[in-house]
Design goal:
Blueprint lengths: L1 H5 L10 E3 L15 E3 H5 L16 E6 L9 E5 H12 L11 E4 L6 H4 L1 H8 L2 E2 L8 H11 L3 E4 L1 H14 L8 E4 L6 H11 L2 E7 L6 E4 L4 H4 L3 H8 L4 E2 L4 E5 L13 E7 L16 E2 L2 E10 L5 E6 L4 E3 L2 E3 L1 H8 L5 E11 L3 E10 L7 H8 L11 E4 L13 H8 L2 H4 L4
Parallel strand pairs: 1-2, 5-6, 5-7, 7-8, 8-9, 20-21
Antiparallel strand pairs: 3-4, 9-10, 10-11, 12-13, 13-15, 14-15, 15-16, 17-18, 19-20
Helix pairs in contact: 3-5, 6-7
Length: 423
Amino acid sequence: MPLLEAVASHISKVEGIVVLTDKANMPSSSKLNNLLCYEDLIADMPSEYTWPLVDENSDTALCYTSGTTGHPKGVMYTQRSTVLHAMAAAQHNALNITEDTVLLPVVPMFHVNAWGTPYAATMTGAKLVFPAHGMDGASLYELINGEQANLLLGVPTVWLGLLNYLDSINAKLDSVQNVVVGGSAAPLSMIKAFEQKHDAFLIHAWGMTELSPLGTVNSMNRHMAALSLEERYQKQLKQGRPVYGVEIKIVDDNGTELTRDGKAFGRLLVRGPWVVDGYYLNDDKKSFVDGWFDTGDVATIDPENTMQIVDRSKDVIKSGGEWISSIDLENAAVGHPALKECCVIGVYHPKWDERPLLLAIANEGANVTQDEVIAFLSDKVAKWQLPDAVVFVTELPHTATGKLLKTGVRETYKNYLVEKGLV
């Protein structure tokens, strides 16, 4: 109620606000005069419900992109696309959701319908566990243990908080089998921590609001099982293979498809039965080419058809004509034991056009210097890819879905090297 009262003057066109309670517990408000009691609304309704037959192409849900690279855009899902997506997500070589699954999505419904998991769980009879407001490490650990969750889904920042809490109390996740990471890439240190400390397999998944959201999943398969542990870790860093129904390819700036050798990288295009073909009430068609959707991501695809995101096209750093992946630098840097979170952006350089700048949040009580961070990175990336400077900050901006919001950061620090006399 306080949240709604705070924006009451901005929501004057809302006809009614339904409060999920009975008449005895209805709150009063001096700012909201359109409150409706849920139990009163349904008091005269029948206790049985006959499911209607609806056109499978009719609209079922509307989600908006998180706007990390521009204004949010609406994506309308249909009955058909939602059911097909749920069927694909539940498959063994995708998220492997069955009636034995105890699924904990630490993902809000406004984040692409909690990645579509409520539909897949209902379809298969899986048990769904919701975290409500308790997304800190202590609350998640209590919930996971109490409900014996075996499949977790969330963004890296959530799992970082959980892992740090588990380390602080020397505890282990006994029930968890798989941890799905999406939204942004998980660092190697996180993959190893779940495997070595908790016997849990980290599954990278990639998708977008425009894909409902599932596009690729890096679940365990025979090829990965045959690799050595260190080789498998490297494979787990990738975003995975397309789920059945989704096609992917990478193209150069001329639209020519590139080879799937794991080295060539280009613009990632996708198509499939639950991939958007246009935005809601928006005639912007520049992302749609001959039936393919241009994701705005830069990626590689290896001979096993495993895709890896190199960067967002607007986040990749162009230095002296060569590309530097901000994701690779961020993932390498966050492996430093003294760093909690990292953000890499390209900033102006008069000779090289752009150079990487690393913004880092240090762990509480940790003492770490710029030279120590760069030394730590020196054997993990090419020398010319090392950041020109490290800036220690107390916080970094995120979208509502947990992704780093780099637009404001780039504007704030765009001339950092020049202003600090580092060029």
